[in-house]
Specification:
Blueprint: E1 42-43, E2 46-48, E3 77-79, H1 85-90, E4 97-100, H2 113-116, H3 127-133, E5 137-140, E6 156-158, H4 164-174, H5 178-198, E7 206-211, E8 216-218, H6 224-232, E9 246-247, E10 260-265, H7 267-278, H8 281-284, H9 287-290, E11 294-296, H10 299-304, H11 308-319
Helix pairs in contact: 4-5, 5-11, 6-11
Pfam families: Peripla_BP_2
Family: Belongs to the bacterial solute-binding protein 8 family.
Main location: other
């Protein structure tokens, strides 16, 4: 499954962005000065799902603390593991996060500017950073609990390992928002089921293919994307009804076939390789490709993430594309 045709180097990332003109920083304009949209909407002849997504709208409306929680509602929260930020976003209280004990740039981009702008103060923050964060609650995980030690006597809660729904509920419970957490999960499950029925998802066989630097992988049902499709009721092709992901080879190439194929790219190198494959004779010979039923999705949201906020993004992607063509 190797590409045989070249592709234009001007194609940009899967997550479409407004880009400047190739020759400089000035935006493209019409003769009358009106801006020209340069949003990337296709990659290797495949349409990108949600190319104009606005990540500033990812987070949900604020929730209120349970009346009988028994503890004061935290006003300033420090998180030691960036993966916990999704739950805070989904609970609508991202504005309470004052620091993340991680490297700069660790907050997932899909969470939007509210959380990507939170100071990342390193895994062993110094006294000045701890003082500035001024936390009254530290949320940590078993793997990152050491980063909570500089905060001394500040109340700390360790969120146990679990699937994305369990972890979300654990964060909600830790914040005294257990009832709100249950309600938000129920709302998502209800909407996912309604979407599946409305779009007749049970009669769609959807393939999930990820492109790495020099690899193609069929995503298993236990991946984040696989789980969300399951919530919606989308069916997977027979060979893909397995928990774990597996590599595509010349021997099992046809296992990538489906009524619709969602493809994604693991970084820039994954996109470069993916472009080559998507334009190869082998790929173009797939039924989904011939019928223009291949769509590109954001790998960071569909696979690298894991939380309720990301789940809503994937669900909305499916809503807008399950019946769509390349």
């Amino acid at each position: 499954m190797r590409g045989r045709r070249g592709v234009c180097a001007a194609l940009l990332g899967v997550v479409a962005v407004a880009s400047a003109a190739c020759s400089g920083d000035e935006p493209l304009t019409t003769p009358d000065g009106s801006p020209i949209s340069t949003t990337v909407t296709r990659v290797a002849e495949v349409n990108i799902v949600s190319p104009d997504r606005d990540f500033s709208k990812t987070c949900l409306a604020p929730t209120a603390a349970d009346a009988d929680a028994g503890t004061a509602d935290a006003a300033r929260i420090v998180v030691t593991d960036p993966s916990l930020l999704d739950a805070l976003c989904a609970l609508g209280i991202g504005d309470k996060v004052t620091a993340v004990t991680a490297a700069p740039g660790s907050a997932p981009a899909y969470l939007g500017p509210q959380l990507t702008s939170v100071p990342a103060i390193g895994t062993t923050p110094d006294a000045a950073a701890v003082s500035k964060a001024d936390a009254d609650l530290v949320l940590t995980t078993p793997e990152t609990v050491a980063s909570s030690k500089p905060f001394g006597g500040v109340r700390s809660v360790t969120i146990p390992a679990g699937d994305w729904q369990e972890q979300f509920q654990a964060v909600a419970d830790a914040l005294g928002r257990g009832e709100a957490g249950q309600q938000r999960l129920a709302e998502f499950r209800t909407e996912a089921a309604k979407t599946g029925k409305r779009m007749d998802a049970a009669h769609s066989q959807v393939s999930l293919v990820r492109f790495g630097e020099d690899s193609e992988t069929i995503a298993g049902m236990n991946t984040f994307a696989g789980q969300i499709l399951g919530e919606i009721g989308v069916q997977r092709p027979g060979p893909q009804r397995v928990p774990d992901s597996f590599p595509v080879t010349s021997a099992n190439f046809r296992d990538a076939e489906g009524d619709l194929i969602y493809v994604s790219f693991e970084g820039e190198k994954g996109q470069k390789h993916g472009e080559e494959v998507l334009l190869s004779d082998e790929w173009l010979g797939l039924g989904a490709s011939m019928w223009k039923r291949v769509l590109a999705v954001d790998d960071a949201v569909w696979y690298d993430s894991s939380g309720l906020a990301a789940a809503w993004l994937v669900l909305n992607d499916v809503k807008g594309s399950l019946d769509g063509n390349s």
